[in-house]
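Renewal narrative, Specific Aim 1. Our central claim is that a sequence can be written position by position from structural information alone. The example that follows is taken directly from our test logs and has not been curated for this report. It begins with the structure tokens describing the chain, in the order in which they were read.
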């Protein structure tokens, strides 16, 4: 028996053995599904602080690097060694300050506005009903239809505002705690996450060198270069997307604030700061963000004036057209490289898989997957001398 035949027999036996082993493992996994699920839940609980800390560190590493560079430039030579810890402390304090301002500004104002909305609905519906009926005077059939429709609308809006929206707003913070776990568990995870975040920010350069060393220790130089190049692309995609999206949302919020200030003088707009914060923050969510922010903002304006609400909605449509076709593409150019269809597909897919978090991270993750598939297709076409297919 020659060497080639022995090799084929060995590979066939190895394939059969691995298939049998995989089937046995799968069988035991199915038999012990409940135990595995509990083990995974325990593991998720253990790793949650690291997920919190890693996420915070990744989001803060770019501004931390910027601040560190400023300290290195302006500090005297003997104090330059403190540039990194000063940058970490400064960026954490700024992050805490921003979160505090947003929560202290938005949540109390939103709750009070919803209370006002719930109390104002009957009077507003009555005013609108009288206005419509005055224009339908003489047509009793249409007047009866209008009366019935507005009575149903008033009942539904009142019930929604008092039994759904208001309890949701009042229990927002408590609801978050209840869905994640007990107060103590959440506080523990947040505190540990902040500590892990500090360690990661302080040692991010050393960790990057260690990771690079591991890659080159396990792989050949050419393969290691490709792996590091892919990680660089992933990092560039995420940083470019979130950085550009945050800047885009800040500009959109500022434009909205200027508009609301002008309209507060011209037409009596109220809650300019609250509405601008809502529009700016929700604009971070790709594709659906503008609509999510426009609904509560329009309701807040509707409390005081339905006419102003209509003006605001027209302004939002114009603003989002400007953002979607001019501002957004300028700031996010090259960060994801996806068409509108694939952006919508990514948001829908990852929202179904991971909920609200999936909406935020779905686009950059899908952009990375899309790029990997694109590179594989290009390489495969090149191997088969069919590269001209992409140019057809």
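The sequence written for that structure reads:
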């Amino acid at each position: 028996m020659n060497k080639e035949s022995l090799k084929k027999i060995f590979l066939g036996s190895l394939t059969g053995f691995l298939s049998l082993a995989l089937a046995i493992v799968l069988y035991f996994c199915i038999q012990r599904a409940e135990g595995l699920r509990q083990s995974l839940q325990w593991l998720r609980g253990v790793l949650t602080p690291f997920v919190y800390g890693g996420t915070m560190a990744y989001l803060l590493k770019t501004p931390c690097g910027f601040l560190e560079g400023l300290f290195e430039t302006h500090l005297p030579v003997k104090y330059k060694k403190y540039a990194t810890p000063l940058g970490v402390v400064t960026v954490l304090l700024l992050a805490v300050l921003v979160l505090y301002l947003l929560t202290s500004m938005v949540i109390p104002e939103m709750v009070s506005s919803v209370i006002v909305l719930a109390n104002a609905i009957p009077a507003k519906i009555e005013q609108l009903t009288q206005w419509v009926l005055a224009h339908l005077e003489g047509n009793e059939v249409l007047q009866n239809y209008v009366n019935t429709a507005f009575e149903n609308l008033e009942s539904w809006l009142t019930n929604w505002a008092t039994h759904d929206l208001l309890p949701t707003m009042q229990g927002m913070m408590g609801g978050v705690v209840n869905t994640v776990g007990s107060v103590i568990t959440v506080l523990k995870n947040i505190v540990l996450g902040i500590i892990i975040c500090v360690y990661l920010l302080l040692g991010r350069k050393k960790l990057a060198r260690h990771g690079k060393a591991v890659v080159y220790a396990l792989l050949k130089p050419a393969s290691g270069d490709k792996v590091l190049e892919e990680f660089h692309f992933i990092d560039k995609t995420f940083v470019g997307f979130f950085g550009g999206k945050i800047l885009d949302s800040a500009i959109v919020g500022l434009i909205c604030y200027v508009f609301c200030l002008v309209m507060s003088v011209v037409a009596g707009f109220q809650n300019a700061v609250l509405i601008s914060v809502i529009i700016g923050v929700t604009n971070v969510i790709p594709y659906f963000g503008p609509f999510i922010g426009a609904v509560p903002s329009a309701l807040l304006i509707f409390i005081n004036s339905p006419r102003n609400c209509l003006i605001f909605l027209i302004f939002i449509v114009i603003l989002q057209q400007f953002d979607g076709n001019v501002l957004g593409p300028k700031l996010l150019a090259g960060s994801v490289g996806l068409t509108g269809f694939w952006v919508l597909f990514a948001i829908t897919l990852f929202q179904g898989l991971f909920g609200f978090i999936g909406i935020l991270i779905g686009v950059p993750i899908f952009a990375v997957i899309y790029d990997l598939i694109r590179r594989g297709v290009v390489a495969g076409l090149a191997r088969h001398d069919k590269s001209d297919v992409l140019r057809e």
